[in-house]
Q: What sequence folds into this?
C-alpha cells in the first residue's frame, strides 16, 4: 500500500459529537463499523458516565 496524504484519507462524522474524523490504520479491518471518533463518544452514546 502506498503512502497517502492525510487529506486523501476517508472521513466520517461521529454519531455522538458530530465532528469529522479520519481513517486510522487500526480501523483498517472494520472501518465500515466505526461510528464514533473516540472511546469517550462511544461510552457516552451507550449511556455510560464520562469521567471528568
A:
Amino acid at each position: 500500500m502506498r503512502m497517502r496524504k492525510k487529506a486523501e484519507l476517508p472521513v466520517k462524522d461521529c454519531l455522538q459529537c458530530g465532528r469529522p474524523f479520519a481513517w486510522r490504520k487500526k480501523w483498517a479491518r472494520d472501518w465500515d463499523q466505526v461510528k464514533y471518533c473516540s472511546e469517550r463518544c462511544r461510552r457516552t452514546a451507550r449511556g455510560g458516565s464520562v469521567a471528568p
Remarks:
- The radius of gyration is 13 Å.
- DSSP finds one helix and two strands in the chain.
